[in-house]
């Protein structure tokens, strides 16, 4: 009885272990790629309150002096802002300085932040002079503004406004959006004004409050003849690049048992570390042998009980 009692658990254990070994699931190889994202890049913005590209001809144009001046010109990526109120040119009018512009308000700002680029320029209570006309302003205005905004993935926006009265060469004028407004004063000169232009593309925007074409020859004396262009309150921007969409989570491959493949040289290919190997047939055979021993032990045990 003691011998039978001892053999019963051993036989059962052997048989159970063999079955469990045969039923063990194969190993699987799986993998996934981490998702990545990207941030918006680039983007530009710039603004200027006043820009002049004038040619000053002295003494019947025997002497030419370029008058290329800017007021509060700023640009970004680095945020920038300026608030200077005057532009003065020296050495043109008999050696005396010429105040090209005076204003109560003259501000410009440009920013690029993340997915947004923006610029704006403002000018108020301003008077613009050129050499040869010390007492007469080429233009006087109440207020002009321009703004441009470019956001990643959106259509850029540009707008400008001219508010209040505008006086050109001493004459009050009504500006028209349909084309240039021309003001001519005999013995003084001609000024053509283009009002509030705005242009946009899929990635850029630009706005200009006023653009003046100037041709001045005071009293036709050819002492100081001025020709060129004056731009007031200009803003520009370029959209940052839109962020790239994050890739979709990688799809898990179809789960299949790893199996060994051998070539003519008998080498294995691409097996999971815990999967099948070259010993698999021997392990399986050993399990079957153990199963047979277990069955035989059970038979012997039962015969012993019967006797």
Describe the structure.
The protein is an alpha+beta fold and 307 residues long. Helices cover 16% and strands 46% of the residues. It has helices at 2-23, 280-306; strands at residues 44-58, 63-71, 74-76, 80-82, 86-93, 96-113, 116-128, 139-151, 157-168, 171-173, 181-185, 189-200, 204-216, 224-238. The strands form two sheets. Strands 1, 2, 3, 11, 12, 13 and 14 form a seven-stranded antiparallel beta sheet that branches. Helix 1 (2-23) packs antiparallel against helix 2 (280-306). The model is unreliable at 1-40 and 258-275 (pLDDT under 50).
Work out the helix count.
2
Into which percent range does the helicity of residues fall?
A: 10-25%
SS-based class: alpha+beta
Oligomer: single chain
Taking pLDDT < 50 over at least 5 consecutive residues as the criterion, the unreliable ranges are 1-40, 258-275
Shape: elongated
Strand content: over 45%
List how many beta strands DSSP finds: 14
pLDDT averaged residue by residue:
74
Tell me the radius of gyration: 44 Å
Elements, N to C (H/E): HEEEEEEEEEEEEEEH
* End-to-end Cα distance: 11 Å
What's the story with the biggest beta sheet? 7 strands, antiparallel
Summarize the structure.
It is built from 2 helices and 14 strands, in the order αββββββββββββββα.
């Amino acid at each position: 009885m003691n011998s039978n009692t001892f053999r019963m658990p051993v036989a059962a254990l052997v048989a159970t272990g063999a079955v469990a070994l045969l039923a063990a699931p194969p190993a699987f190889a799986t993998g996934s790629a981490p998702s990545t994202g990207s941030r918006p890049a680039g983007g530009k913005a710039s603004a200027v309150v006043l820009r002049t590209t004038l040619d000053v001809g002295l003494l019947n144009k025997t002497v030419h002096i370029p008058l290329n001046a800017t007021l509060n010109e700023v640009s970004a990526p680095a945020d920038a802002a300026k608030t200077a109120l005057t532009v003065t040119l020296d050495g043109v009018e008999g050696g005396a300085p010429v105040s090209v512009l005076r204003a109560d308000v003259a501000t410009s700002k440009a920013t690029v932040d993340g997915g947004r680029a923006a610029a704006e320029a403002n000018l108020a209570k301003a008077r613009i002079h050129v050499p040869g006309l010390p007492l007469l302003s080429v233009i006087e205005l109440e207020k002009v503004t321009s703004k441009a905004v470019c956001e990643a993935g959106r259509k850029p926006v540009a707008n400008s406004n001219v508010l209040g009265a505008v006086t050109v060469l001493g004459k009050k004028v009504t500006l028209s959006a349909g084309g240039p407004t021309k003001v001519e004063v005999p013995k003084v000169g001609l000024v053509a004004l283009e009002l509030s232009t705005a242009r946009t593309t899929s990635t850029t925007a630009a706005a200009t409050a006023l653009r003046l074409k100037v041709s001045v020859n005071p009293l036709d004396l050819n002492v100081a003849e001025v020709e060129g262009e004056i731009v007031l309150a200009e803003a520009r921007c370029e959209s940052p690049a839109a962020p790239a969409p994050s890739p979709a989570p990688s799809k898990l491959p179809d789960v299949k048992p790893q199996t060994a493949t051998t070539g003519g040289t008998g080498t294995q290919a691409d097996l999971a570390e815990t999967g099948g190997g070259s010993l698999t047939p021997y392990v399986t055979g050993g399990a079957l042998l153990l199963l047979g021993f277990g069955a035989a032990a059970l038979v012997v045990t039962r015969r012993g009980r019967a006797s």
